[in-house]
Amino acid sequence: MARDAIIQNDDFGGGEVPPSPGMFNPDDAQYDETLRPTRLKDVVGQRRVVERLQIVLDATKKRAEPLGHLLLDGPPGIGKTTLATVIPKELGTEIQITSGPALTAPRDLLPYLTNAGRGSVLFIDEIHRLPAAVEEFIYPAMEDFRVDIALGEGLNARTISMDLQRFTVIGATTRSGMLTGPLRDRFVTREHLEFYDDDELETIVTRNANKLRNEITPEAAKEIARRSRGTPRKANNLLRWARDYADSKSDGRITTELTNDALTMLEVDHLGLERQDRRYLETLMGVFTGGPAGINAIAHTMHVAPDTLEDEVEPFLLRCGLIQRTPRGRMVTAAAYDHLKRTPPASGNTPPGESF
Ligand code: ADP
């Protein structure tokens, strides 16, 4: 998602906010792979989801049947790809990986379908971005394990039907609301992944510091967890930055003091807000006098793609109670003025939000 978001930023003539370790970074994918849990027992948090998946996996193994199609939704960096890659390992089967935007036409999807062995997993990231023609093409593949291929044109046109092995689609999406009803209905299991609490993120940070062979104090791990916006990928990125900082400034031991200095330098505040989040709030306060304002207007003013704001900025601001979504548009709350130490406008229609 982040990669596409950045491409769209360029389309908007953006790039005003350069990537920082808290945001998109070209090394993220590589880094994700190094730290990604490989078995279900190593997945931290999401307890209920993991318990339910464990049941489904046990039953699938006992019956020696392919797993039913599974849809995972939740904000970016929350563990959707992690679960999707852990599942085939637990089942001892293979996985093929693609994404909605990469599948521009049915012919792009066909090789994945014909290569899929019995019980194997086809992971489709950002499945809400599948073009309509590809979506239509995947319906019979998911339901009846067959595809209809159109051959020739005009009078010679004919359709052949081809049988497929019984395979499993695991779809991931940051926007389950954008999925069409028929596609959503083809998933037997649907799971929503939530933001993580600080203790869970602390466990992830401590474990990953160990993997990276860097010593970290419990307080420093707590501090990184607190500023990670409930998101493991952010926690990993902040840990990476704190580690670079500690290696550069001292002996590599990640202490609270070094962590605070490192995160201040990165402009990540005590809530975990980054420059882009604060720009969003400032735009809403400054240009739109606190709102309500439409997402496109805010995005246009900030020179950022609306998708980036909806996927990467707003979920956490909503969760913190710093903004509200109303039928008339987005509004900042009194808590946001408080957080940025600004005075709310005199009109007094600012919702309270949470205080910190
Ligand atoms: P998504 O697919 O939702 O964007 P990922 O699954 O790629 O997110 O997660 C990003 C990184 O965060 C992973 O590489 C992994 O290191 C870490 N991570 C995510 N979820 C967990 C988890 N439940 N336990 C431990 N680490 C996690």
Description:
This protein is an alpha/beta fold. Helix 8 crosses helix 9 (218-226), helix 8 crosses helix 10 (232-249) and helix 10 (232-249) packs across helix 11 (256-265). The strands form 3 sheets. The protein has a 5-stranded parallel β-sheet with strand order 2-3-6-1-7, with helices on one face. The protein is globular, with a radius of gyration of 22 Å. The protein has 15 helices and 9 strands. The longest helix is centred in the C-terminal third of the chain and has 18 residues, at 232-249. It folds into 3 domains: 21-192, Rossmann fold; 198-265, Helicase, Ruva Protein, domain 3 (Orthogonal Bundle); 275-339, Winged helix-like DNA-binding domain superfamily/Winged helix DNA-binding domain (Arc Repressor Mutant, subunit A, Orthogonal Bundle). Bound molecules: adenosine-5'-diphosphate. Residues 32, 35-37, 43-46, 76-82, 172, 204, 232-233, 236 line the site of adenosine-5'-diphosphate (ADP).
Task: Write down the CATH topology of the largest domain.
Answer: Rossmann fold
The H-level CATH homologous superfamily of the largest domain, spelled out, is P-loop containing nucleotide triphosphate hydrolases
Count every beta strand, where a strand is a DSSP E run of 2 or more residues: 9
The distinct ligands, each listed once, are: adenosine-5'-diphosphate
What is the overall pLDDT average? 89
Summarize the amount of helix as a percent range: 40-55%
- In spatial order, strands of the major sheet run 2-3-6-1-7
Low-confidence stretches: 1-24
The termini sit apart by 30 Å
Q: Domain count, please report it.
A: 3
The gyration radius over C-alpha positions equals 22 Å
CATH architecture of the largest domain: 3-Layer(aba) Sandwich
List the helices and strands in order: HHHEHEHEHEEEHEHHHHHHHEEH
Structural class: alpha/beta
* Percent range for β-strand residues: 5-15%
Quick one: CATH class of the largest domain? Alpha Beta
Largest sheet: 5 strands, parallel
- Number of helix segments? 15
Overall, the morphology is globular
